[in-house]
Write a structure and sequence with these properties.
This protein has 19 helices and 10 strands. The strands form 3 sheets. A 6-stranded mixed β-sheet has the order 3-4-5-2-1-8. β3 and β4 form a beta hairpin. The longest helix has 18 residues. It is elongated.
Length: about 425
């Protein structure tokens, strides 16, 4: 029996990056032998076991054969005679198809010389910074397009091999991407959104044609002009990518990055005769993002923040012009009193939007500080005494709410904004 650490752990160690998780492949063994050694079986589709001490995953070497469309359409074969090279052949990219013997796994990569199992040129492509498919079996699993795209966002200085891009284009033309299930699409997109350069993921998906299938609402933004006095980059698609990379630069959490991605979708449906103006795009963006979130089963916290940002980002940008009453109305529309943390996230997304413009990447965004002060002033109002006093006057329901709102408006007016 041979045990090897494989895939991302080897890649990241060779790149000098921290290794968080290790995947192991066991060659020349059987499920019965693994269980006898104390390993706990957990795999549903193929034999995977948890190590009795480390709880890391150990998979028996396997081969895969395509049986139907989509990423689940595979027949898996495991047997003691499946070789390590055969197991590595089913992997997506050459940089992920390397292995190191268990005895060396926890040692420095400098000790691995001559011991790395690398039948498909992963070290060569790692040195050249190229993402390349291992074999044409890549085309059998459409999830691999998404994986490569999000690896591009993580390793932003890597290029995609020409023959790999051509293969992905063919996969899109053959309709393979149409059969991706929403959960996997969202899972890979979310990982790419949290990578250091999300724009690279979308650039790769656009280049191979997959973005038009998976997110047509986003794909149609390229080529749509905006007013140059507000958007020197002009192209809406370019703006979206600047916003996404700004969110990554500012280390924003996933809900903020999703809100950034979807805040301007409505600009893709602006009538041609009114361009480059985008009157009413906020409302159109909300409707479009709701459909996207439903289709991809995006988590509720991401969806709800995206709705607030899409609907109100223009008002938040212009909030320096607003007086106390208008500020209070904005806070109410954003539900900033009941959900103060979400409002702070909305302001973060708006800052990314404002700074995600050509020449504005280091610009200040004073709107956020002013609105947070207004929010704090409104939150500082003790509502219970006001409600009691209003009730003593015979006021009920909405009338009591009006008294509380007046007190909050007064508090905002007295704050140093």
């Amino acid at each position: 029996m041979g045990v090897f650490v494989v895939g991302g752990a080897v890649r990241d160690a060779l790149m000098g990056q921290r290794v968080n998780d290790r995947d192991w492949v066991v060659v020349g063994s059987t499920p019965e032998a693994m269980t006898a050694q104390g390993f706990e079986p957990v795999g549903k589709d193929f034999p995977v076991f948890l190590h009795p001490q480390t709880r890391e995953e150990y998979a028996l070497a396997r081969t895969e054969r395509k049986t139907a469309r989509g990423y689940k359409g595979f027949a898996v074969q495991t047997a003691p005679d499946v070789t390590l090279d055969e197991d590595l052949a089913r992997r997506d990219l050459t940089v992920n198809a390397m292995a190191v013997p268990e005895a060396l796994a926890h040692q420095a990569p400098t000790t691995w010389t001559g011991q790395i199992v690398d039948p498909y040129g992963g070290q060569r492509d790692l040195q050249a910074k190229v993402l390349r498919h291992v074999t044409d079996a890549f085309a059998e699993d459409p999830v691999r397009i998404l994986r490569l795209a999000r690896f591009s966002a993580r390793f932003a200085d890597f290029s995609v091999a020409g023959d790999t891009m051509a293969l992905m284009r063919q996969m899109v033309e053959d309709g393979e991407v149409d059969h991706l299930v929403p959960e996997r699409v969202w899972q890979e997109l979310a990982k790419g959104l949290m990578a250091p350069k999300p724009s690279r993921m979308f650039a790769v998906l656009r280049e191979c044609g997959a973005l038009k299938v998976l997110l047509p609402e986003l794909d149609r933004l390229w080529g749509v002009p905006q007013r140059p006095e507000y958007h020197p980059e002009i192209d809406t698609g370019v703006h979206m990518m600047l916003v996404m990379d700004m969110a990554a630069r500012l280390n924003m959490p996933l809900p903020v990055r999703v809100a950034c991605l979807m805040h301007d979708l409505g600009k893709g449906t602006t009538p041609a005769d009114v361009l480059p103006r985008h009157i009413g795009h906020e409302g159109r963006s909300v409707k479009l993002l709701q459909k996207v979130c439903e289709r991809l089963r995006v988590p509720t916290d991401c969806k709800e923040l995206a709705e607030v940002v899409a609907r109100e980002h223009g008002n938040i940008h212009r909030s320096a012009e607003l007086g106390p009453e208008a500020l209070m109305r904005l806070l109410e529309r954003c539900d900033a009193i009941r959900q103060p943390e979400r409002f702070e996230r909305a302001l973060q997304a708006c800052e990314c939007d404002a700074r995600g413009r050509l020449g504005f990447d280091d610009a200040a965004y004073p709107q956020a500080d002013r609105l947070l002060k207004a929010q704090q002033a409104a939150l500082s109002v003790e509502t219970a005494p006001i409600a009691q006093a209003a009730a003593a006057q015979g006021l009920k329901g909405p009338k009591i709410g009006e008294q509380i709102a007046k007190a909050r408006i007064q508090a905002i007016a007295l704050a140093s904004l």
